[in-house]
Amino acid sequence: MHLTNDYANLSDFEPAKAELTAIRRHLHANPELSFEEAETARFVADKLEAWGYHVTRNVGGHGVVARMIVGSGKKSIAIRADMDALPITEQTGLDHASKVPGKMHACGHDGHTAMLLGAAEYLARTRRFNGTVTLIFQPAEEAGAVSGAPAMIADGLFERFPFDVIYGLHNHPGAPEGTFLMRTGPLMAAADTAEITITGKGGHASRPHLTIDPVVVACHLVVTLQTVVSRSVDPTQTAVVTVGAIHSGEASNVIPENAKLLMTVRSFDPKVRELLETRIRKLSESIAEGFGAKAEIDYVHGHPVVVNSETETEFAWTVAEELVGADRVTTCGLIPGSEDFSHFLEHKPGAFLRLGNGVNSATLHSARYDFADESLTAGAAMWARLTERYLDE
Questions:
Q1: Which of 330, 306, 328 is nearest to 378 (CA)?
Q2: End-to-end Cα distance, the chain
Q3: Are 340 and 149 in contact (CB under 8 A)?
C-alpha cells in the first residue's frame, strides 16, 4: 500500500493543463456526430498507441479500447469517456467554436475525452499501478436507444477486454468547477418513448356527428395521461410522463382520420418503469375505445436506470475527498436525464460520477454551452488516482 500522497494529485497535472486545454479545444472545434466519430477515434487511438497502450479500434463502431498491464496484480479497472457531438449550431462566439456548421460539442464529450487522455498519458508515463487498466472511448452516446454502449457490449467488450469494475463521468452545469457529485443507487433515469396513433373516422368539420374525431380523443388522452404519475405512482418515487408532440390534420374544416402523440417516459425504479408502461397502454386503449376510435401504441424501451453500486461509489467518494478535499465532494440529486453508461452498470459494478462545470455554465445541449477547462485537471487527476488506488487495494 502506498502512502496517500504517493498517488496522483492535482499538482501532478498542472504542467499538463495547457496541453489538456489544447486537446479539448481541438476536439471542440472539430465535432463529429454519433456513428461519425472516425477522425476523433483516430486522434484518440494515435495518442494512446504513442504512449504505449495496446489499442483496439472500431469496437462497436468507432469505439477505441486501450489497455495497459503493469506488474503482476490480478485486478482490473475500466474507465469510460464518450466522444460524439450533437446536431446543434454553436452560438458561443468562442475562438475554438465548432468549425462544422450544424454540429457542436454541446454536452461536454470533448472534455470527457480530453480528461481521460490526460489520465492515460500520466498512467503510461508513471506506471505506478499494479494490474490492468482499460480505457474505453465510446462512440454514439447521444444516439438514443440504439447507441454506443450496447453496441460495444454486443461487439464483445466484456469478453475481449475483461475488467472487474467500471467508472464513468459527466460534467455538471450549476456546480463549481473541479467539484465532484456522487450518489449511491439510482442516479439517472430510464428513458422510454411511446408513439400513440389514434385512428378515428374523418369527415367534414361541419358534420362532426358523422365522424370519430381523433383530435378530441388525443386531447382527452393528453389530460388523462397526467394522472399516471399523480395517481398511479407511489408519491415517494419519481417519474415523468410528458407528451412532447401532437400531430393531426392540416385544415380547419376537415376532421382528420388520425392523430399521433409522441411521449417521453422517465423513471428511476424497474417496477415503476413497468407500471408506467402498463398504465399508458391501458389508458390509451380504453379512452380511444370509449370514443369509438382505436389506439396503437409503439412503446420503445430506451436506456435503463443508471444504478451506482454502493462499494464502488463509496470508494470513488473517498478518492475524490483525498484529491480535492471533503468540502468539494457532495451528494448528487436524482437526474431525470438518461445515459447509456447504464448498460455497462447492468453487467459490472461501478459508478457514474458528476464533475462541476461552473455555477454559471450554460445548460447541457444548449447552443451556448462550453466545457469548463478549469475542470480538466481535476477530472484527469481523479481518473489517475482512482486507478492507482483501486489497483493498489
A1: 328
A2: 7
A3: yes
Grid cell locating 319: 478518492
Residues 6+ apart with CB under 8 A from 27: 40, 43, 105, 110, 113, 114
| C-alpha–C-alpha distance, residues 173 and 335, integer Å | 12
Per DSSP, the residues of 236-293 read TS-EEEEEEEEE--S-TTEE-SEEEEEEEEEESSHHHHHHHHHHHHHHHHHHHHHTT-
For residue 125, count CB atoms less than 10 angstroms from its CB and return exposed for 0-12, middle for 13-18, buried for 19 or more.
exposed
**Residues annotated as catalytic (active site), given as ranges:** 84, 141
Q: Which residues of the chain have pLDDT under 70?
A: 1-5
In whole angstroms, what is the distance from residue 116 CA to residue 78 CA?
A: 11
pLDDT digits (tens, 9 = 90+) for 206-261: 999 999 999 999 999 999 999 999 999 999 999 999 999 999 999 999 999 999 99
Which residue type, as a one-letter code, is found at position 69?
A: I
Classify 5 as helix, strand or coil.
helix
Measure the CA–CA gap between 377 and 262, rounded to whole angstroms. Answer: 42
**Burial readout 335-363 (b: 16 or more C-beta within 10 A, e: otherwise):** bbebbbbbbbbeebebbbbbbbbbeebbe
Q: What is the pLDDT of residue 145?
A: 86
Contact 366, 106 (CB under 8 A): yes
Strand, helix or coil for residue 79: strand
Please give the angle made by the CA atoms of 263, 265 and 267, to the nearest 5 degrees.
175
Record the cell numbers describing residue 240, joined without a space.
415523468
Phi, psi of 228 (to 5 degrees): -60, -45
